[in-house]
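User: C-alpha cells in, sequence out, please.
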C-alpha cells in the first residue's frame, strides 16, 4: 500500500539501476518524487493540460525543498491548472519571448536605417555604448521603469547630462515601437524625469575664429576640415554638409531636399563667395556625386567628431560643439545688421520661435545703436 511521502521516506528511496523512477504521494494527485540512477531526488507534478496532454513539471530538488513545501506547491499549481493555466507552457513562452538584443536589432533595421545618415550614426552609437550593454541580455517584457531610470541616472552621474537625455529619447522611441509591434503592452521609459538642459548660447568670438581657421589649414584630415568650413560658411548642420550632393548646388544657391532637412521641408539659400570657392575646389578634387564621399564604400562621410576635437585642441578652443558653428553664423549675421526673420530664412527655420534663441545676439548692436543716438541727441557733449 502506498504511503504518504515524508522527508525520511524520500531519503530511503532506493536508486534505480538506470534512468529514473517516480514515487507518487497518494494524498496529492500527480505529486511525487523522482529518483535518478546518479542519486538526484527531485519533486515533480504530473498533470494534463486543458487539451488533455500529459505533462510533467519539476518543482525542485530535495532537500532544497522539503516534502511539505513541495506538496503545498503542487496543490497550488494544481489549482491553477484546473483554471486552465499550463505552467510548462508559461515557461516555454517566457523562454521564447524576444530579448532586448532582438528588439534592438529590429529597431536598427526597420526604424533607424530610414533616418538621415548622421542620425543613424548617433542612434547606433547610443545603442552600442549605452543601451545594449545595460539591457541587451534582458527580455523585452522584463525591462521596467526602474531599469530605464537607473540607466538615465548612471549616465547623468558620469557628467553627461545631455547624453543621458538623448539615451532616454532613443529608449522611449524603442519601446513605443515595441508596443506597436506587440512585444509588450507599455512603455517603461514614460515618467523618467529628464535632466534640465540650458539652451546653449555659445558662439565663436573673433580671436577664436582666427585660431580655428588656422587650425583647419594645418589639420591632416582636410576633408574633415572642409566639412567644418562648409558649416561655418553656410550655417548648415554637419549632417546636411556631409550628406550633400554636388547636384544640390547651382547658380550660387544651395537647394536642400526635404528628406535631408530637420524640418522635412525643401530649403534654399544663397552661398557666400568663400562657400562657392570651397565647393569649386571640392568639385575639382573628386568625380563622386557626394561633396564629401566616404573613404570606404559608395556613400558619404557620416561623422567629423574626431576631427572637430583635434582642431579645437590645436586652436585652444573649449566648450564648443560643431553645432555652435551655426550659432556663430547667426552671430555674424546679427553684427552685419541682419534681422531675425532673415536669419531664420537662411538657417531654414520653419518656426520663428526657433530663430528667437538668437535674439540675445542683438544686445551689443542695440547698445551701440542707443549710444550713437545719445551722442546725436546731445550734440556729442556727453
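Assistant: Sequence out:
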Amino acid at each position: 500500500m502506498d504511503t504518504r511521502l515524508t522527508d525520511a521516506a524520500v531519503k530511503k528511496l532506493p536508486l534505480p539501476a538506470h534512468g529514473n523512477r517516480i514515487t507518487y504521494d497518494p494524498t496529492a494527485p500527480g505529486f511525487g518524487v523522482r529518483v535518478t540512477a546518479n542519486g538526484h531526488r527531485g519533486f515533480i507534478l504530473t498533470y494534463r493540460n486543458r487539451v488533455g496532454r500529459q505533462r510533467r513539471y519539476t518543482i525542485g530538488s530535495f532537500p532544497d525543498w522539503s516534502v511539505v513545501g513541495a506538496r503545498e506547491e503542487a496543490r497550488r499549481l494544481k489549482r491553477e491548472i484546473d483554471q486552465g493555466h499550463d505552467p510548462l507552457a508559461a515557461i516555454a513562452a517566457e523562454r521564447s519571448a524576444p530579448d532586448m538584443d532582438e528588439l534592438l536589432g529590429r529597431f536598427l533595421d526597420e526604424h533607424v536605417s530610414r533616418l538621415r545618415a548622421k542620425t543613424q550614426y548617433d542612434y547606433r552609437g547610443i545603442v552600442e555604448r549605452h543601451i545594449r550593454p545595460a539591457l541587451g541580455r534582458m527580455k523585452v517584457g522584463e525591462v521596467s521603469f526602474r531599469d530605464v531610470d537607473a540607466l538615465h541616472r548612471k549616465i547623468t552621474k558620469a557628467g553627461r547630462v545631455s547624453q543621458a537625455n538623448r539615451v532616454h529619447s532613443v529608449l522611449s522611441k524603442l519601446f513605443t515601437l515595441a508596443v506597436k509591434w506587440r512585444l509588450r503592452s507599455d512603455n517603461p521609459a514614460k515618467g523618467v524625469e529628464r535632466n534640465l538642459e540650458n539652451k546653449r548660447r555659445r558662439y565663436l568670438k573673433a580671436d577664436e575664429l582666427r585660431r580655428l581657421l588656422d587650425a583647419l589649414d594645418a589639420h591632416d584630415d582636410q576633408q574633415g576640415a572642409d566639412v567644418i568650413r562648409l558649416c561655418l560658411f553656410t550655417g548648415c548642420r554637419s549632417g546636411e554638409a556631409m550628406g550633400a550632393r554636388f547636384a544640390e548646388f547651382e547658380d550660387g544657391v544651395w537647394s536642400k531636399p526635404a528628406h535631408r532637412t530637420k524640418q522635412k521641408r525643401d530649403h534654399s539659400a544663397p552661398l557666400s563667395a568663400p562657400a562657392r570657392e570651397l565647393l569649386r575646389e571640392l568639385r575639382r578634387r573628386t568625380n563622386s556625386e557626394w561633396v564629401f564621399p566616404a573613404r570606404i564604400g559608395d556613400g558619404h562621410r557620416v561623422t567629423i567628431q574626431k576631427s572637430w576635437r583635434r582642431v579645437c585642441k590645436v586652436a585652444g578652443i573649449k566648450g564648443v560643439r560643431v553645432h555652435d558653428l551655426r550659432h556663430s553664423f547667426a552671430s555674424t549675421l546679427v553684427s552685419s545688421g541682419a534681422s531675425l526673420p532673415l536669419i531664420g530664412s537662411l538657417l531654414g527655420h520653419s518656426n520663428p520661435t526657433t530663430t528667437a534663441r538668437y535674439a540675445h545676439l542683438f544686445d551689443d548692436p542695440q547698445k551701440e545703436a542707443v549710444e550713437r543716438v545719445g551722442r546725436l541727441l546731445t550734440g556729442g557733449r556727453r
